[in-house]
Amino acid sequence: MPSELAPEQLRRVCDPLSLPEVTSSALSEADGIIGQPRATAALRFGLEMPDPGYHVFVAGPPGTGKMTAVSAYLTAAARGRPVPEDWCYVYNFADPERPRALRLAAGQGRQLARDLAHLLTVAQQQLPRAFESDEYTGRRDALLKAFESERTARLEQLGARARTQGFALQVTPMGLLLVPLHHGRPMSEEEFTALSPEQRQALEQARAVLDEEISRTLKELRRGERAVREQIERLDRDVALYTVGGLFDDLVEKYGSVPEVAEFLVALRDDLIAQVHLFRSSPEESGTPADQMALQREQTLRRYRVNVIIDRSTADGAPVVQETHPTYQNLIGRIEKEAHFGTLTTDFTLIRAGSLQRANGGYLVLQAEDVLRQPLAWDGLKRALRNRAVTIDEPADWLGVTTVRTLRPEPIPLQVKVILIGEPMTYYLLYALDPDFRELFRVRADFDLEMPRTAENEAAFVRFVSRVCDQEKLRPFDRGAMAAVIEYASRLAEDQEKLSVQFGAVADLVREASYWAGQAGAATVTAAHVRQALEQSVYRSNMIEERIRTMIRRGTLLVDVDGARVGQVNGLAVYDLAGYRFGRPTRITATVGIGREGVIDVEREASLGGRLHSKGVLIIAGFLVDRFASEHPLTLSARLVFEQSYEEVEGDSASSAELYALLSRLADLPIRQGLAVTGSVNQKGEIQPIGGVNEKIEGFFATCAAKGLTGDQGVLIPIGNLSNLMLQDTVVEAVRQGKFHIYPVRTVDEGIALLTGIPAGERGADGRFPADTVNGRIAERLRAMVEALRTTAAGTDALRDGH
User: Fold this and answer.
1) Which terminus in the chain has less CB density within 10 A, N or C?
2) Distance between CA atoms of 758 and 749, rounded to whole angstroms?
3) What Å distances lie between residue 769 and 192, 627, 765, CA to CA?
4) What is the pTM of this model?
5) Cα distances (angstroms) measured from residue 613 to each of 151, 536, 639, 654
6) 671 neighbors 565 (Cβ within 8 angstroms)
7) Is 521 left (phi over 0), alpha (psi -120 to 50) or beta?
């Protein structure tokens, strides 16, 4: 007979005096990733590997604080790294549709933008003054006057030459026109008609010679006009260069260490001088409306600005970027549009950086599932990591959709570590289905659900609670409250030797305990407040559990907790409803008759049995064959059923209970109904550990308490579940008072002996079980069933022969 467990074995209590401080207010903030040495080592390796492809996938169940822990770790690591460069987009004077990307030291991007804004302001102020100055006006007018004087003289000479040939030279909108003269006045049509053919021919010949001279003269005048225009343009350039050239020289000297910036400044200077008319024309001089003219001028002057998309002027260390909405454009960047007069326009100043650019030189943290849900985001991320460069483009280009004409900014080189955070199944699916993923994310950092319950880790837990209290301005926890939180963490882990690292649930408990302390007017959170928080959390969620318990108490659901019944046992099941788990007893019955069908699972026959449950029933049949069918075949027809079960039964944790019910029916021995059973069984009769042992024990205890504790009630559990016990104080106290009992069993024989009060029995030297044992009674019953089946078969054969 197995001995019942002592109260001290049912729950590992944390001694408040063993904790480092009385309250959490004086504790330092917890650093690093608590209780995850494997994940920490993998993360450190991935971050320190310089080669491409060593990005990190942090895998772990929800609620383990992966995002918070990884972000804190990265923030600490980033402080020791250099601040990366600024990135700017500027106008490309050689190819306006492909803006140039400039890399500058941290803070210089903003400075360059300010310097060019100042230069543009100075140019807008001083260039109009320079072109309105008397010196400039005089030099320009002198050039125009000289050309006009020469033009007038040449035309006068040409007119005199024409008069000597009998023509007058007239200036018309269509050009210079030769008109024949008669007695010093223009010849009329009648007079021209009256001329003889010889006179007409002479006039035509003279006209041809004059036309040649006119053409030659006009060509020379146009050449002279071009020369004057070029002289004026040179004058304008000289004036502009004199006015702002010094500023450009200063900037080229200032940024000369960056060849790309110096090259851009030279191109900008040349373009500004070429576009100097922008600084001297006024809207009133053109036929365009003033507001439209001002807009066109402002858009043209944008080319002299700097679009700083990444500004590190205030950065301290490498960037750590968490992208919570990783759409394609939020990752890669976007080119925005402006609407003017019904038309969408864009330019390089409307280029916006994405998370990859902001994280360049540092770390980018993403939720894997969020990235995979966004169209094109996963492909865009992989392309950037493969090419080690970010190219901002339109998502429609990927889809082959025709779009309006847009920009093609230069790619920005990428040096970033991407940390994807997701569930293990997401990692396995990506690894199996996406070859690029295997090449890019070669480091997996696995987050565990639990950590060893050592003094060091208990101290780390205390620091974690302290950090939550400090960051969220909660009431400090005293030693007793800290101990209660640690015990709750062991309860979450379902292990006396472990602590759960589901820090989300632990942080919720800390917040709720602080709330109840506040409701009580306490300045410090105590263990009583932690227990109250747990009780209130259960109360908010256990309505269904209480209804089931009420139905059991009223007899709607048939569960006996006293007396003894043949072929009937109380099994235990666990329900998980939206994160709240509770246990409840279920009546399991067995019937046995003569036949050849073997053990029939009624749940399976009714399509209510899951695969694992069906496997458990087959194992029961295997156990019976192994123990009782060595000398004769197993000839029985047995039925196993979960009474009042109207939903699928899954799992094998009740297989030992089913076997006990079947053995009870075969041996015709009653089972104590005050004892419930949990545990799976193998073909050798060994009881195997199961999950949810605490909820199962507490569920049956609550049922017994509701119907009345007798002092004979308890639960049989697998001996392998001893370390999983973290029972509620009410159960532990009932065990201490002898009102409830918990028995660890190793084998079916131990369990059936405890349930029936009769020894299971072992085979003797003759291979038989003692007659006064459970196994002996079963063996005798099965032999009788074999003989009965043989007699029945013989009678049937004789009857057949008689006919």
Assistant:
1) C
2) 10
3) 154, 10, 9
4) 0.81
5) 111, 35, 14, 8
6) yes
7) left
Separation between Cα atoms, residue 797 and residue 803, nearest integer Å: 10
Nearest to 717, CA basis, from 390, 443, 494, 422: 494
C-alpha 614/C-alpha 636 separation (Å) is 19
- β 637-642/580-593 pair status: antiparallel
Cβ neighbors of 118 (< 8 A, separation 6 or more) are none
Structure tokens at 92: 């490309």
Q: What's 166's DSSP letter? A: T
Q: Name the least confident of 266-280, 419-433, 481-495.
A: 266-280
Mean pLDDT of 707-719: 95
Cα torsion angle, 749, 755, 759, 761, sign: negative
Helix (H) or strand (E) holding 245, with range, is helix 197-254
Q: Which residue among 66, 498, 696, 739 is the active-site one? A: 696
pLDDT tens digits for range 343-396: 788 889 999 999 999 999 999 999 999 999 999 999 999 999 999 999 998 887
CB 495 within 8 A of CB 489: no
Region of residue 292 (left: phi > 0; alpha: psi -120 to 50; beta: else): alpha
pLDDT for 30 equals 45
Is the separation of the CB atoms in 111 and 86 below 8 Å?
no
Residue 599, C-beta contacts closer than 8 angstroms, at least 6 positions apart = 617, 620, 621, 624, 636, 638, 640, 662
Q: What is the pLDDT of residue 798?
A: 57
Tell me, yes or no, if 696 is annotated catalytic.
yes
The rounded distance, in Å, linking the Cα atoms of 496 and 494 is: 7
Residue 33 DSSP label: -
- Annotation says 637 is catalytic: no
Give the whole-angstrom CA distance, residue 466 versus residue 480: 14
Tell me how far apart the alpha carbons of residues 310 and 520 are, in angstroms, rounded to a whole number.
51
For the stretch 61-111, pLDDT in tens is: 887 888 888 988 999 899 989 999 999 999 999 999 999 999 999 999 999
Give the contacts of 167 (CB within 8 A, at least 6 positions apart).
178, 179, 180, 181, 206, 207, 210
Can you name the residues that pair with 421 across neighbouring β-strands?
58, 367
Q: 97 is written with which tokens?
A: 């549709």
For residue 587, list its beta bridge partners: 570
Residue length, the chain? Answer: 803
Q: Give phi and psi for 91, each to the nearest 5.
A: -70, 140
Output the CA–CA distances (angstroms, integers) from residue 31 to 28, 75, 77, 112, 464, in the order listed: 9, 11, 12, 39, 9
CA proximity to 645, closest of 613, 668, 667: 613
Instruction: Name the DSSP class of 277.
Output: G
Q: Of 500, 653, 664, 680, which residue is the catalytic one?
A: 653
Most confident of 190-204, 524-538, 755-769, 789-803: 524-538
How far is residue 92 from each of residues 19, 266, 321, 412, measured CA to CA in Å? 65, 12, 30, 15
